[in-house]
Every structure is written in C-alpha cells, then in structure tokens.
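[recover] target loaded
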C-alpha cells in the first residue's frame, strides 16, 4: 500500500515548451524527400507533364505495329494479324493446339502447349486473329493473342 501511495504522491513532471529549431538546422531548399524524387525524375528526363505522358515502361512492346507474315524474321518478336485457315489438337509427345494463320503475304503456324477448350473453340476457320510472339523457323509459339472481328 505504501508504494502505491508514494507513486500517486509524486509530482507531475513539468513539460517545457518546445523551442523552434534554429534556422541553420532547418532543412534547406532542395533537400528532403520531395526534392529527392524531383532529382530522380529529372535524371529520367521527366521535367513537365508532357514528359510523363510520353514516358514508356522499360519492357514496353509496341502493339500498334502489325507486321505482314511474309516479312517475319526468326528470333524477333512481332505482331501479326490474319485469318485462321485451320486449327487442330495434335498428340505429339504431349497435347498441343496448332493453328495456321494466313494473310496476303504468307502463312504461319501457331502452337500452344497450354490451352483450354474455350481457346480451341475460338480458333474456328475464317476467324481474324492477332498474335504476338517470337518466331522460330516456320512456327510460332503464341504468347499473346486476341480474336479480331
């Protein structure tokens, strides 16, 4: 009991009013988090709002350019658009979906190793298809593709 009374009897510690920091120790113009971000943006060449609109991500792929099938080069990624001539599921060492895509300049065989039945249904004959992938000799493992009306 005595310790509780002694603890309660202690006077409250008086708090001193906070002093403002002297002008020398205050952050100067051009220092701090905001200016650090500003310096990093300027090092990227971003100075105004229009620069932010035109700044592209590191691995940006231009999906607006469609290349004719006849001008594809092996090993280079490209985006092609054409009509599906045929598609089928093949059982070579493992199940694969293949489709032949054609435009005015040539034909290209597309191959999917992982696919769903709904994707197989979408690749019906006569459908317009846009695919983007890297090509090998005469076939293309389509990484991204979409159906065009």
């Amino acid at each position: 009991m005595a310790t509780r009374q002694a603890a309660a009897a202690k006077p409250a510690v008086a708090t001193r009013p906070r002093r403002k920091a002297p002008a020398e120790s205050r952050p100067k113009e051009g220092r701090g988090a905001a200016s650090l971000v500003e310096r990093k943006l300027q090092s990227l060449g971003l100075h105004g709002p229009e620069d932010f609109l035109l700044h592209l991500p590191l691995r940006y792929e231009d999906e607006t350019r469609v290349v004719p099938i006849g001008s594809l080069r092996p090993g280079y990624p490209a985006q092609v658009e054409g009509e599906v001539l045929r598609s089928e599921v093949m059982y070579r060492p493992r199940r694969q979906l293949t489709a032949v895509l054609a435009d005015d300049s040539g034909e290209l065989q597309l191959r999917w190793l992982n696919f769903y039945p709904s994707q197989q249904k979408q690749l019906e004959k006569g459908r317009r298809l846009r695919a983007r992938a890297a090509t090998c000799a005469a076939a293309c493992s389509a990484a991204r593709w979409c159906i065009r009306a």
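[recover] notes: The domain at 69-135 is CATH 2.40.50 (OB fold (Dihydrolipoamide Acetyltransferase, E2P)).
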